Amino acid sequence: MSEPIRRIVALLLIAIGLVLPVYSRKASPPPVGGDVLLAPAASDVLVVDFRDGMSQAEVEGEEAAVGLQLSWASDVSLDEALRSGKVADYATGEAALARLRADPDVEAAEWAVPMQALGYPDDPLYGKQWNFPHIGVERGWRVGGGKGVIVAVIDTGVSVLPDLPAERLLPGRSFVPGTPTSADDQGHGSHVAGTIAQATNNGIGTAGIAPNATILPLKVLGADGSGRSDWIAAAIDEAVDQGAQVINLSLGGGHSDVLVKAVQKARAAGVVVVAAAGNAGREGLGSPADAEAALGVSATGPDDALAPYSSWGQGVEISAPGGNKNLPGGGILQATIGDRYEEWQGTSMATPHVAGAAAVLFGAGAGSADEVERILKLSAVPMGDERKFGAGRLDVGAAVGRLFLERGGLLAVAGGLVSLALAVLG
User: Residue 24's pLDDT is what?
Assistant: First the structure.
């Protein structure tokens, strides 16, 4: 190898060495439930079940041949020859697994699969939230539930409720003249915020998609549910300034250049902006959903059909459960003011499903708004007519799986490049 090429390869190795540790930290998910496999490296522990009766010397020899040093899974595992141990990186573990699975002395080999008690969560009304299992939200809970992510709810305000505690809410502010606080005096905003971040597994009421996310309540609609485009635009700007990674806009009206520009600026700042398509039941979106930079959301019912009230057309990027109360139990159940749990329907109810999913992906390590939006669309369940459903119906479980599979796959490629470069340099 010529000296210039050798130097280039060496620099490549240094770059990979600098980037890969940061990338690996983002890609390492918390434990997941045993009913799903999030990614090849959802665990950093390998488990190898050798042929029963093999001696310690025999199994240690087999391990050494593939670069592993494991231990007995427990002090009663010797007769079963069951071994386990942590592996430094995904690529090394995958290479060892490939060789072990071809070894006749190995009965099974895999990444450890974390398990948990069934029946999660214990929210008593969860059984009526058909929309959550429908889109696989349980998988999102197992990767942090949006921990560390700020979601701005620009709406009628959000109030502290028994099932939406104060620690999940930032102080927020009001843009409605004469209304001093961001407290909800209509109910809409609290219902929307509940879908995103209702307290979960707390033995009370309903669950939320990203229960560990933090809500930034920005009140732009009054007690009658109405507001103005300039109030909303100002709130969008404030959400960006306050560090929101996701903005939920379960509201709309006629076209507004001011709102389109505000959404554009927020998106350019790296914020995912999710907006309701509207409830006109016909083709055509208003603002802010008609902004090219917004993720316009149409609504589906329990049967996955487009809800009869949902607007559709150019600007719909994805669909999500918004409810259809023509079907028994078909509304979206969440807490609202007055400590009530009510079934509502609307594209306003569909939009926070997508906002919550975006929060889950950011919390699980997604590095940008571009990555979040791309994964949400690619993982959506295809529904046919893109004018009505966009990329398809939201699937949180598939989105989380895709995030970790893509990141695990990149780590494997990077590991392979390192090995190849080392071999060439050697």
Answer: 31
